[in-house]
Amino acid sequence: MAMQHGARNGAVTPEGTHPPAAVELRGIDKSFGTVRANHDVSMRIGAGTIHGIVGENGAGKSTLMSILYGFYQADAGEIRVAGKPVMIKSSHDAIAAGIGMVHQHFMLVDTFTVLENVMMGAESGALLHSSIQKARSELSRLAQEYSLAVDPDAVVGDLPVGDLQRVEILKALYRNARILILDEPTGVLTPQETTQLFRILAALKAQGVTVILITHKLGEVMAVTDTVSVMRHGELVADRTTRETSKEELAELMVGRKVRPSVAQRHDTIGAAALAVEHLTVRDHLGVDRVKDVSFDIKAGEIVGIAGVSGNGQSELLEVLAGIRPPTAGRMVIVDRDVTASAPCDAAEMRNLRLAHVPEDRQRLGLVAAFTAAESGILGYQREAAYNRGPYLDYDAVAAHCGDLMERFDVRPPHPEIGSRKLSGGNQQKLILAREIDRDPRVLLVGQPTRGVDIGAIEFIHAQLKRLRDRGCAILLVSVELDEVMALSDRILVMFEGRIVGEVAGEDANARDLGCMMANVHEGATESRAS
Amino acid sequence: MNGELPRWIDIGLIPILNLCMALLVSGLIILAIGEDPLQAVAIMVRGAFGYEEGIGYTLYYATNFIFTGLAVAVAFHAGLFNIGGEGQAYIGGLGVGLILLAFDSVLPFAILAPLGIIAAAAFGAAWAAIPAYLQAYRGSHIVITTIMFNFIAAALMVYLLVNVLIKPGQMSPESRVFLPNAHLPFMHEMLAGLGIQFTSTPLNISLIWALVCCVGVWAYIWRTRWGYELRTVGFNESAAVYAGIRPRRIVVATMCISGALAGFVGLNEIMGVHHRLLINFTAGYGFTGIAVSLMGRNHPFGIVLASLLFGALYQGGAELAFEVPTITRELVVTIQGLVILFSGALAYMSTPWVTRIYRALNRPAVASSEV
Which residues contact residue A438 at a Cβ distance below 8 angstroms, ignoring those fewer than 6 apart? Predict the structure, then answer.
């Protein structure tokens, strides 16, 4: 991985000596109801370093940073910035203390320009004119100093994701942040954009900015950080100097046990095509073609992975195949049913064809947060005879079904009456997966199966998908995690701007080539091969 | 935050607190005009529950509030805000009136009664179906269209009563009185049949039908497959589409049910009390239904309780205006308005500090570190 170097060269702090602490957390406790999100967490982050915080979902890293940024207040404990104790009761206090945060989901106004977004909330007077002048010169200074070039007059809605992140960073710097928190910053970036981000982080570090990087990607931690803290179940379990640790050790610390790396097992039980897509085009309500003339097929007993930066038509492709939206042109053949624009097929009919769908966005599509787990456990199958007695739903049968799913798929806590929203991300995902594969589908569509899911659950979900494939199911896997696509897929298709721009066999795939295809840069591909 | 509180606080204590705040403010106003607030409350309570006639009126008003409250609640569970209960009730009454005017001379009560129920439901549903269709298939917001349909209903009724249905030879815009076989039995008549003496009040058998509707709505929303799909659409329309549910159909079907429930106000008023078609018999019940449903947490049981409260406010308020000359009809409306404001519009105002007190009481250790 070429990106792993470069970033470390910017270090100015002599490594080995202890720099003064930029942030020090002492004995932070935070509970939500009976859940202890943080328990006696103490952490020391050296000034001018890049510090990683890793941990599974629900380990308490986001809570800890939310306390530092003033979204929550700790029940007990102390925060010191540059040696002085500070009270941070709101993000205002945090900004005043020189702390900035780049959220996982960008907090930008799409219809404003970069300049307007950067100065928003930090205008210097009632009249905008003088603020704009000031902001413009300040912005160009920052852009130069940290090599963060963005056109100040570009409308934010038109910018690619990588640029949005820079705007967020600029926003924080404009408010004089000397400590920058980045929450899962690479989730939406291509490998190339990630490399650029790491260069920016190195430049920040060179200017003495302290960077706190929250992530669950251990490769990134190894690549850019100086020190790393590992959290598990709300507690800090280890502090390490990055040079002296390894991915394997961090993974073990995170999970609390040894992790088997997922190894793709090839097999030879591939059958006839269960899903065929021919010249499929999908137009959205704005008249933009999101999927353009796409053709492929998936055979029984095969996993076809779709790689791509999110927003390049994968979501729309999944939705069309699942019957959530109709195709605009082209056709798809699912088992033996022909679906076209003039003969569409809704999600209920698709399920009757034994096509199951684990949606990308489980909160929005996969379950109903306000329902009990039992009620979410029949979502999409609510009309099946097994759960109905005349006009009434048979709630005993519904609960028994959910209990059975929870037991077999290790959903915790195994109470069908629990609210769906109270399950953690990984357990929600396991419940949805259980519901969808319980009926032994012939075609399974899976979107982002392990997004926001902890490592233990990832192993489990991957194993389930492989088992299903081996039983002869045709699986379409859409994921922004390249590692996941490469680990599971027999064939990989790359989507860019709604088209399929490349196809590789699973065993021939490597991250760099896929990354170039995902960004559709052919020159880049040849260049990196040459180097 | 809401989820942290036990149910009894959320659906019991907080509504009572809201009611107390409304009464407190009302008390200050009564004090300001030089009357005794405690005496006023006493008069209101006695007026609403203290004697047979008061109880009869309170329950008669409550009947209307149950119908309109249920109408709002059903729509609410599908994520729809039906502001058109007033118009749907009005048109529901028109349906009842037309059927009875047409058939009261040829059909017996045993057929007219179910026919009246069907007519009220069908007309109310039809009036709600148009905004529902416009929302589902044309994207016109249902809040706007249902409000506008209230005005259209009012104008339509005036036209019909002044020009078409008016009994010839009189000034007031009313139809002829239905024949006695088209009257719903009054409660005092039914009780007399059982040998119980009760003062004559407008309370009629519609109250029983309202309670049947409560059970029906509960079963529909929480026990049937259709209710499951309705709630799915209400909570999360995207998930509904994912689950193969067609939200447009749910929107139209739900609004029809909602409109039918509102239409039953016409049953109570036209077939039960007035026995003729007339202007303005809905008297704001449709709008008050929104507050009833909010206060009853959109649950039939809560709606029955809230309906009793509002019935008592209407009846006790009338009594208060009658007994204390300085407390005018307008001031009584003000008190009713305050109750609606605190328990409807500001229903969740007290939740944050109740939550804080509850937490402080339950976890003293944490509370002390916060202070």
Answer: A405
For chain A, what is the radius of gyration of the CA atoms?
Answer: 24
By C-alpha distance, which of A84, A104, A71, A107 is closest to A20? A84
Q: How many domains does chain B have?
A: 1
In the numeric block, which tokens belong to residue A387? 């759960």
Minimal C-alpha gap between B360 and chain A (Å): 12
| Same structural domain, A54 and A90 | yes
The reply to whether A152 and A56 lie within a common domain is no
Cβ(A510)–Cβ(A525) below 8 Å: no
**A183 in the same domain as A167:** no
Cα separation values, B318 from B29, B58, B186, B273, B325, Å: 17, 11, 22, 18, 11
Residue given tokens 């917001």 in the structure block: B141
A53 phi and psi angles, rounded to 5 deg: -120, 115
- Tell me which range, A209-223, A269-283, B302-316, is most confidently predicted by mean pLDDT: B302-316
CATH of the domain at A520: 3.40.50.300
pLDDT, tens digit, for every residue of A15-29? 444 557 899 999 999
Nearest-angstrom CA–CA distance, A254 and B313: 61
Average pLDDT taken over every residue of chain A: 85
Is A205 within 8 Å of A47 (Cβ atoms)? no
The predicted pLDDT at position B1 comes to: 38
Q: Answer yes or no: are the C-beta atoms of A106 and A164 closer than 8 Å.
A: yes
The Cα A308–Cα A447 span in angstroms is 12
Q: What pLDDT, in 10s, does the model give residues A201-227?
A: 998 999 899 999 998 778 888 889 999
Buried b (16+ CB within 10 A) or exposed e, A263-275: ebeeeeebeebbb
Domain boundaries, position A229: 21-98+178-256
Amino acid at A377: G
Q: Is A74 domain-assigned?
A: yes
How many Å apart are CA A518 and CA A502, to the nearest integer?
Answer: 9
User: Average pLDDT in the A48-57 region?
Assistant: 87
DSSP-derived 3-state class of residue A151: coil
- Kindly report the backbone phi and psi dihedral angles of residue A337, in degrees, each rounded to the nearest multiple of 5, phi listed first: -95, 135
The structural domain count of chain A equals: 3
Could you report the predicted ipTM of this complex, rounded to two decimals? 0.83
Residues A468, A357 within the same domain: yes
Same domain, A200 and A239: yes
Cα–Cα distances in angstroms (integers) from residue B99 to residues B106, B111, B182, B267, in the given order: 11, 11, 10, 11
Identify whether A88 is part of a domain: yes
Minimal CA separation from A430 to chain B, in Å: 17
The C-alpha atoms of residue A154 and residue A163 are separated, in whole angstroms, by 10
| Contact status, residue A69 vs residue A242, Cβ threshold 8 Å | no
Residue A380 in contact with partner chain B when CB distance is under 8 A = yes
Among A230, A256, A282, the domain-final residue is A256
Task: Looking at the structure, tell me whether residues A306 and A169 fall in a common domain.
Answer: no
State the CB neighbour count (10 A cutoff) for residue A112: 15
Task: For chain A, positions 347-376, list CB contacts with chain B under 8 A.
Answer: 347-351, 357, 359, 364-371, 375
Asked if pLDDT for residue B182 goes beyond 70, the answer is: yes
Whole-model pTM: value is 0.77
Is residue A386 within 8 angstroms of chain B, CB to CB?
A: no
Q: B89: domain range?
A: 69-300
Tell me how far apart the alpha carbons of residues B286 and B265 are, in angstroms, rounded to a whole number: 9
Closest by Cβ to B236, choosing from A368, A387, A392: A368
CA-CA distance, A259 to B263, in Å (whole number)?
Answer: 64
pLDDT in tens, A407-450: 999 888 889 999 998 888 888 999 999 999 998 999 999 999 98
Q: A502 in a domain, yes or no?
A: yes
Of B223, B236, B370, the CB nearest to A364: B236
